[in-house]
Amino acid sequence: QGSRMAQQRHVPPPLKTEEDYIPYPSVHEVLGREGPFPLILLPQFGGYWIEGTNHQLSEAPTSPPTPAPSTRAKLEGNHTAKIYRKHFLGKEHFNYYSLDPVLGHLVFSLKYDEQEHLHLLLRTRARTLHDVVPISCLAEFPNVVQMAKLVCEDVNVDRFYPVLYPKASRLILAFDEHVLSNHFKFGVIYQKLGQ
User: Fold this and answer.
1) In degrees rounded to 5, what are phi and psi of residue 138?
2) With 161 labelled, which of 47, 67, 136, 190 sits at a CA distance of 20 to 30 A?
3) What is the sign, positive or negative, of the torsion defined by CA atoms of 64, 69, 71, 73?
């Protein structure tokens, strides 16, 4: 039984050393060639690079730091694109559609939540509008057209039609999130004078 247990034990493979890798060309080798240069250089012995943690200036002229121009960082994101996923998808809600003579095709989603609020999400040809309205602020419970006008006063339709397609939520989600891209990573490298 002991030998059977020893056979079943899995011994992890030994860690690879630099000798086990087929080296990629170094940065110096690549830059020593004629262009065009590749956009991506892999680390010479595989793995990945972590940079920016222990760099020091090497005998660079020390000069007082120049004041940076007054700039503001601006990060842009489309927050309305994820509202349907966050507040509607997988929860009880209703989807409607209509055709406005000015705004074009409209898709309207609404949801009642436990805190007595209406989550309203209206998509027009030009933009997506979202609002949360406490039911206690309403004199009477509105119909679907009145709820759409709470989000956008320009809505001019007589009625909304319920969306009766079983996979409508997936299609609406794909439409809302088509502007998002989750497949890219960006890094910023800043090099001071003399580095």
Assistant:
1) -95, 135
2) 136
3) negative
Say yes or no to pLDDT of 102 above 70.
yes
**Facing residues of 118 across strands?**
112, 133
- Is 189 domain-assigned? no
Higher pLDDT, 93 or 75: 93
Residues 31 and 88 in one domain: no
**In CATH, what number is assigned to the domain containing residue 102?**
3.30.1120.160
- Do residues 152 and 122 lie in contact, with contact meaning Cβ atoms separated by under 8 Å? yes
**Span 114-143, average pLDDT:** 88
| 84 and 143 co-located in one domain | yes
Q: How many domains does the chain have?
A: 2
Both tokens assigned to 170: 């997936």
Predicted pLDDT of residue 189: 80
SS3 (DSSP) at 85: helix
Q: Coil, strand or helix: which one is 38?
A: coil
